[in-house]
Amino acid sequence: MSRRRAPALLAATLFTAGLVGCSGDAPVTENRVPADPPRSATPAPRVPAGTAPAKSFAVGVRQLKLDRDGRALPVTVWYPATGRAGGTPERSATAADGKFPVVMFSHGLGGRPADYATLLTRWAAAGFVVAAPTFPHTARGADGNVLDVLNQPADVSYVLTQVLALDGKAGDPLRGRLAGDRVAAAGHSAGGVTTVGLFTGGRDERLDAGVVFAGTSLGVGTAFAGAAAPQLFVHGERDEVVEYAAGKAVYDAVPWPKAMLSLTKGDHGRALLADGASLRLVSDTTVEFLRWSLYGDAAAKGRISADAAREGLATFDDHL
After folding, report:
1. At residue 123, does pLDDT exceed 70?
2. From CA 18, how far away is CA 221, in angstroms rounded?
3. Whose CA is closest to 281, among 297, 261, 259, 255?
4. Above 50 in pLDDT, residue 32?
5. Beta pairing partners, 28
6. 300-303, long-range: CB within 8 Å, 24+ apart, which pairs?
7. What gap in Å lies between CA 174 and CA 156, rounded to an integer?
8. Are 94 and 173 in contact (CB under 8 A)?
9. Contact, 186 vs 240, CB < 8 A?
10. What is the DSSP letter of 111?
11. Bridge partners for 314 per DSSP
């Protein structure tokens, strides 16, 4: 798809649909970006075998003030920290010993990183550094320019570069703590569009895996490119903003190892914002997916489907 067609498509469809964080009235009913021809082979992921941490960590949190060519990008970073696990994230806590994979998270339209703190804190407690930028035009309180979603894959790549640089920065709390060769991208709603874009036209070759919550490919296409990067899609079957079929169409176009967690009674993603049975299901399933795809933990891969089937809240299509 040409760059000239993409903005028009996104304006006509995404904006009209009201793809707003966790609410909306008119659903996105189809994937209007033509799918690429099916590929005959499913390549293997590139992360070597390893073992994820067995313990749970305390969590630290800090803020970075970044700017990409005049685009202010404040970033919230959650990371494994020293201390007793299970408490509230501690601001600027001492980082735990170890080398931790990095997960970039993109919020939805009208959202902010803090909205997803319960989920992202659990990822950090499991042994991941999670970096979540606040986008300049699609965050809550911004001008709501949905077309700017097309600029967000480049924002995420820029933030990733700056975050990874902390590993070698003298005196930084995360110096020596980042596994820059093990990186994933994740996002919800408009952030899901951003995440898909990081594996298509805006492919960031540093990414080893992706997690797409209630996302679609509008404006970014389904031309998945580069080295194989396993993908986990999470979508509510009762999504009132991005219809389930639209998310499933993108999932079907992924040529790599993939799985889709379908929440039988799930909506557009409110379950991601507050603790409850659905969030616990999503949290546990995504943690095991990240343990496998970023740590190379084969045992974690074996637990993904078991977590997904728990309590009868979802179905799981598994092609990992």
Report:
1. yes
2. 19
3. 261
4. no
5. 242
6. 300/52
7. 19
8. yes
9. no
10. B
11. 263
132 neighbors 272 (Cβ within 8 angstroms): no
Of 34-38, 80-84, 125-129, 157-161, the one with minimum mean pLDDT is 34-38
The residue assigned the tokens 């991941």 is 128
With both helix axes pointing from N to C terminus, report the angle between 190-197 and 152-165 in degrees, rounded to the nearest 10: 70
Which residue, among 302, 317, 309, 291, has the nearest Cα to 103 in the 3D structure?
291
Strands 207-213, 90-91: pairing is: unpaired
pLDDT in tens, 215-262: 999 999 999 999 999 999 999 999 999 999 999 999 999 999 999 999
Instruction: Say what the pTM is.
Output: 0.90
What local confidence, expressed as pLDDT, does residue 42 receive? 61
Is the pLDDT at 142 greater than 80, yes or no? yes
The answer to whether the CB of 224 falls within 8 A of the CB of 35 is no
User: How do the domains of the chain map onto residue ranges?
Assistant: 5-14+50-319
Q: In CATH terms, is domain 5-14+50-319 a member of 3.40.50.1820?
A: yes
Strand blocks (E) in 122-177: 129-133
Give the amino acid at 224: F
Question: Which residue(s) pair with 61 in the sheet?
Answer: 78, 91
